[in-house]
Amino acid sequence: MNRYDAVVIGGGAAGLSAALVLSRARRHVLVVDAGAPRNAPATHMHGFLSRDGTPPGELLAEGRREVKDYGGDVVDGQVASARRTGAGFEIELSDGVTVRARRVLVATGLRDELPDVEGLRERWARDVLHCPYCHGYEVRGQAFGVLGWSQEAVRYAQIVRQWSDDVVLFAPPASLTEDEREQLAARAVGVVEGHVARVVVEDDTLRGVALTDGRIVGRDVVFVPPRFAPDNSLFLTLGCDIDATGWVVTDATGRTTVPGVWAAGNVRNPRAQVITAAGEGSAAAVAVNADLVDEDVHDAVRAHRDEH
């Protein structure tokens, strides 16, 4: 059975960053990656210093290479089961291989939940977007639509307004307060009340938004206020505390309530962009290594006493 100092579950920016730091700390590290990154539909990522505009897949491929160059192992697959043992953790992979780890770092990310609007998922990360900081500059000045399906939609529309003078909020009937209407009008954000049925696509290009009453409002881009669902199944399996909204409970370094288990990236922080997730992975790795050092010291002192 293979034994590792740390097994990192998830090979995105957070997981690979953590594995890189741990490998450089001369730790024996395994990364298990399911190969389904959240930003796979995006052609480029933005806001990552020195890597702005890089295709997401290119960043991950380079990250894998760097981890391997420092002696880390990277495998494609999924975790079938994980359990705590007296000496750490036992993790079974989907191909039947079982590995043991002194520490576990989970970086499995999250799922984007979208409203039930025809065509929305198919245009995701193309001209249906959720993060203006990731994509707003590339579509600046175009005609934006914002789907008002969440309580944060008005605030979100005001933020999106930074990238275009032509913004329309599609709001369910009677959902806006007078204060919200005034705020939107003050910054020339249009309001279309009604229920959205589908996005209109012609020649593989988004052309507008169709409402259930037959109206079609021309738009070039649709922004969707995000709803995030954490991939928390491993935390539940390992017995980590989960808060009332489904997110794992951690300290500032990503340490969970189960000794030896850490979390990093979107699995604990839904608003982490790629650069933020990478930073969280690095910080968690430093904490994991420090925890391993504490254990190494304890074991060394005990061995030293036994010898003397």
Automatic annotation (TrEMBL):
Keyword Flavoprotein attached: yes
Keyword Oxidoreductase: yes
Domain FAD/NAD(P)-binding: 4-280
Swiss-Prot/TrEMBL catalytic activity: [thioredoxin]-dithiol + NADP(+) = [thioredoxin]-disulfide + NADPH + H(+)
Record key words, sorted: Flavoprotein, Oxidoreductase
Domain of life of the organism encoding this protein: Bacteria
GO molecular function: thioredoxin-disulfide reductase (NADPH) activity
PANTHER family: THIOREDOXIN REDUCTASE 1-RELATED-RELATED
Protein name: Thioredoxin reductase
Organism this protein belongs to: Sphaerisporangium rubeum
